[in-house]
Target: TRAP transporter substrate-binding protein
Amino acid sequence: MIRRRNLLGAGLLGIGGAAASFGSPDHAANLAAPAISRNRRRLNMVTTWPKGLPGLGRAAERVAERILAMSEGLIEVKVYAAGELVPAFESFDAVANGSADMYHGAEYYWTAKSTAYPFFTAVPFGMTAQEIMGWIDFGGGQELWDELSAGFGIKPLQGANTGHQMGGWFRREINGLDDLVGLQMRIPGQGGDVLRALGGSAKSLPGGEIYQALQTGNIDATEWVGPWNDYSLGFYREAPYYYGPGFHEPGASLAVGINLKLWESLTAGEQALIKAACESVNHLSLGEFTYQNSVYLDLLVRKHGVQLRSFPDEVVARMAEASRDVRAASGRDGLEKRIYESFEEALNKMAGWAAVSDGPYYAARELGRKTGG
Model:
């Protein structure tokens, strides 16, 4: 493995120079010869997503496609769905130990590694998509994330965002807190901790295993993403009640994790190229999820008779109370405490802005729609 990485690392040395000359007056004359002599590099990316999954799975493929295009074919990334190279939840370890080069997944799957990881995907009653982008890119989140993941030999980057998620699919209606007692639900991360605090039982299952668990009765309910991705996995066939809003994931950020030794072997130009590819997919995915969720929500309700429900007020209030305790318990000391404190400080700042911007606007727009405005 060391020999392979040394050889492959040497093959990238010409990329930075080629990028620097691109667009210069001499570019046309210089392009042909270096392009012939430069070596190409092949990397592998493991994911936590089922094969062929739209949205999440497509985001991983887009990252690979953009790296290939932006490097002019010099860096090729082969994407493997969950289970093709390693099981979904072994993706982190595969990249950390160097048996895989990159992963695409959700950081809250790695809670056993650190209780701070969910803050970089989503936490209950936490940040929306725009807010988590704001914290990571401008509020110190990336630096803390880098510090956390470096301890495991990984360089993390944002690689997609689903936007607001739904609360989940339920076999029976939730009319009050008593209906959560004993409920067995697929819900990972801190959302699962909140459910446990309310008397339920939470399980963390990869996407490819959820439908069977729901079908066989091993779980009573499941959350996944939203109408678009949920439709593709067929949950509506087993659980007719679709609850929202998703208190547990108000704007789930997905990650690209890169083996740190591999990352440090790259030139600054190569690193910038990969960052740019991930950033473009991260922002593109948010618009795609927003639009496609609207299309598939209509399809689920109109064609398949899915029954939309909202959680009762007493359930929401208790979830919010439990969520504050769960978030605080995840950051009691050291780096995890610094991450928690940074997240909460940024959340409070941005929530103040949302209270006078997004929230009132959505309410006003809905009022206008109802009155024909």
Summary: Residues 268-304 form the longest helix (37 residues). The longest strand covers residues 154-161.
